[in-house]
Specification:
The structure holds two protein chains of two kinds.
Chain A: E1 9-19, E2 22-32, E3 37-41, H1 48-56, E4 63-69, E5 74-77, H2 89-93, H3 95-99, H4 106-115, H5 130-143, E6 148-152, H6 160-173, E7 178-182, H7 186-192, E8 195-200, E9 205-210, H8 227-240
Parallel strand pairs in A: 3-7, 3-8, 5-6, 6-7
Antiparallel strand pairs in A: 1-2, 1-4, 8-9
Chain B: H1 2-25, H2 35-44, H3 46-80, H4 82-97, H5 100-111, H6 116-139, H7 143-153, H8 157-197, H9 203-212, H10 216-244
Helix pairs in contact in B: 2-10, 3-4, 3-6, 3-8, 3-9, 3-10, 4-6, 5-6, 5-8, 6-8, 7-8, 8-9, 8-10, 9-10
Classes of the chains: A alpha/beta, B mainly alpha.
């Protein structure tokens, strides 16, 4: 597999952004450290996805903005896995190359698929289970080989067991990259995050910014040592709602 | 296969109803010929009917090809650039609003009694459903797919072109298939309207010719042949367009 690109710091400063006429973000600041996996939580409509879209360049900031320190360039994985329904797994993984007019590196794509636990000869998305589709989307995210990975509720539609294994895989494969992951599940954040940020209010502010104890692997979210943090996240979410 | 069987069943039922109607009403053959009389009329001059059917089939196929190609190009142009969309949208609506019946005699005056005006009418009729459906499909790429493509492709004209080619167009193929199937369904109507406005060949011509000579059984034979031709053409396009989108799962 290719070496991880240089880690990048994401610097969101003074972000101002409205949605349907209301100011969603007004002077919002957040820094994501190089190589950090930051989990964004918040009630529905709190602006988590919009923040991710602003970092991805899909939502235009009215004031302030997003700066990348180090390599620039983002890769995005969404809740709806956004796989091409007509393309085989491998063709979905190399889609980015085709869209940039580059020669698809089929061997690297096959290696990434295998690393993600998918048969490199797997067929169209409709022939794959939900978990397998997530793995294909993850392989595509990695094929993009960008220093910043953005994941918008990537695993919310999966059953508990599949979700756990894909979380572990994601955490392992994203190591070294700066990542922002939106989730509505506090346990997912507790298991995966280097840092947990809860968004709340209108305009958006940070209701909680905390770091679980450092861990290389996926944490056990039921670990009693994580309980105080779980309660703090819950309180922040409840206060926000 | 199941579709073919059910179509056959419907055909048999309709044939039976026709036969029962013609037998029970006791109408003379020059008002309502029975299926047997119609078959006899066909058997009396099969070459005459089939040769003219071939002409109509060719008009349908060429008109369909022209209308489909123009419709596809129009939809692509609309998807490629907003200014083009602003210009072509009214053209598209106007092409549908024009009463083809009223245009047919004018086309015959301009293009003569040959195949050209029939192809032109079929083109005009088929253009709209193809262009409208495909343009709609091109504008309705699933948002998640469109955004993922934008992030991967980057900015610039070349990037937009590649997104169109690798994402937007394939995503719109099911809609194009629908447009083509609708167009195929009206191809026979368009060709016959053209033939009625003035022609020296085709099934529409046979119908007028037989009508003028009170050979209603022959007229029915031509009508049944046209019916079969239209269904065969629609079925062919149906199979081809579904083959174009093999990833679309369909409920039987």
């Amino acid at each position: 597999m290719a070496a991880s690109p240089a880690a990048t710091r994401i610097d969101i400063s003074g972000l101002g952004l409205s949605y349907d006429g209301t100011a969603l973000f007004d002077g919002f600041d957040l820094t994501v450290e190089p190589g950090e996996l930051l989990c964004l939580l918040g009630p529905s409509g709190a602006g988590k996805s919009t923040l991710l879209r602003a970092v991805a360049g899909l939502a235009r900031a009215e004031r302030g903005g997003v700066r990348f320190d180090g390599g620039c360039g983002v890769a995005l994985m969404t809740q709806d896995d956004a796989l091409l329904p007509w393309a085989k797994a491998i063709d979905n993984v190399v889609l980015g190359a085709r869209l940039r007019g580059d020669r698809p590196d089929v061997q690297r794509a096959a290696a990434l698929l295998r690393a993600a636990g998918v048969d490199a000869a797997a067929g169209r998305p409709a022939t794959l289970s939900g978990g397998m589709r997530k793995r294909v989307a993850l392989a595509r995210l990695l094929y993009e080989d960008r220093p910043v990975a953005l994941l918008d509720e990537p695993f919310s539609a999966l059953d508990a067991i599949t979700r756990r294994s894909v979380q572990a895989l994601t955490r392992r494969l994203l190591a070294g990259r700066t990542a922002m992951l939106v989730t509505h599940d506090p346990f997912e954040a507790l298991a995966m995050a280097d840092r947990i940020v809860v968004l709340a209010g209108s305009p958006v502010r940070i209701a909680l910014d905390a770091a679980p104890p450092r861990s290389g692997a996926l944490r056990d979210p039921a670990d009693p040592a994580l309980r105080p943090l779980y309660l703090a996240v819950l309180a922040a979410l409840e206060g926000a709602a | 296969m199941r579709l073919a069987l059910s179509a056959l069943a419907v055909f048999v039922v309709l044939l039976g109803a026709w036969w029962a109607l013609s037998a029970s009403l006791g109408l003379p053959a020059y008002i309502l010929p029975s299926p047997l009389q119609t078959a006899a009329a066909f058997a009396a001059r099969p070459a005459f009917i089939l040769e003219n059917a071939a002409v109509t089939a060719l008009e349908m196929a060429l008109g369909f090809a022209c209308g489909a190609i123009l419709g596809i190009l129009c939809a692509l142009a609309m998807a490629a650039a907003l200014p083009v969309r602003m210009v072509l949208r009214p053209v598209l609506v106007a092409s549908q609003a024009i009463p083809v019946f009223a245009l047919a005699p004018i086309f015959v005056v301009w293009m003569g009694y040959g195949m050209a005006p029939k192809i032109a009418i079929a083109t005009l009729v088929i253009f709209f459903p193809v262009a409208a459906a495909f343009a709609d499909g091109l504008r309705r790429t699933p948002p998640a797919l469109a955004e993922a493509a934008r992030v991967m492709a980057g900015t610039g004209l070349a990037a937009r072109w590649r997104v169109l080619r690798h994402v937007t167009v394939p995503a719109a193929l099911p809609a194009l298939g629908t447009g083509l199937r609708v167009g195929a369904g009206v191809a026979a109507i368009a060709a016959v309207i053209g033939e009625w406005a003035g022609s020296s060949a085709g099934l529409g011509y046979v119908m007028l010719w037989a009508n003028g000579r009170s050979q209603i059984a022959l007229m029915f034979a031509a009508l049944i042949t046209l019916f079969a031709l239209a269904i065969a053409f629609a079925a062919l396009i149906d199979v081809l367009t579904r083959r174009m989108t093999p990833w679309i799962a369909e409920t039987p």
